[in-house]
Amino acid sequence: LPSGSRSSKTFKPKKNIPEGSHQYELLKHAEATLGSGNLRQAVMLPEGEDLNEWIAVNTVDFFNQINMLYGTITEFCSESSCPVMSAGPRYEYHWADGTNIKKPIKCSAPKYIDYLMTWVQDQLDDETLFPSKIGVPFPKNFMSVAKTILKRLFRVYAHIYHQHFDSVMRLQEEAHLNTSFKHFIFFVQ
């Protein structure tokens, strides 16, 4: 990496759902209903499916979408251009993961997003939180974990909209960002 450029760690590898698994089938169902153009229908729990499984699959999908969207604008989101993780002057986000960083710290947007994406990736990779095998139960605190992940991922959308929408428009990605965000909002509601 050239000196002064950001860590390549911020853009995380895509979290894959194993082909042939039940989660893969749920993801395919979600993609098919998304293709219908009806986002409200796309977020509905399919009949007979487990709510935790549906939330897990969609959380992974949103992580991947946000990762990709942010990855397209990383060159515009630097320590100097975004010294604080914010979504406008009224919303400033400080990072704490409760493990390594217990007391919230003020940091730049790229650093915050790097911390966030690493933290989410670790949660998604934890088989005790996000089991990938059929029949392995989700933990009792799963809903709380998923809500925290989604709440924090929302902050990346908020930052992109408030600080980088001009770049998104120059890249002609606003339709993709808007559809992804609308899908996310319908899902979390």
TrEMBL record:
What keyword terms does UniProt attach to this protein? Answer: Kinase, Metal-binding, Transferase, Zinc
Q: Zinc as a keyword?
A: yes
Q: Which residues bind Zn(2+)?
A: 77, 82, 159, 164
| InterPro entries with a match to the protein in the record | MOB_kinase_act_fam, MOB_kinase_act_sf
Does the keyword section mention Zinc? yes
Q: Name one GO molecular function term.
A: kinase activity
Q: What protein is this chain from?
A: MOB1A kinase
Q: What gene, per UniProt, encodes this protein? A: Mob1a
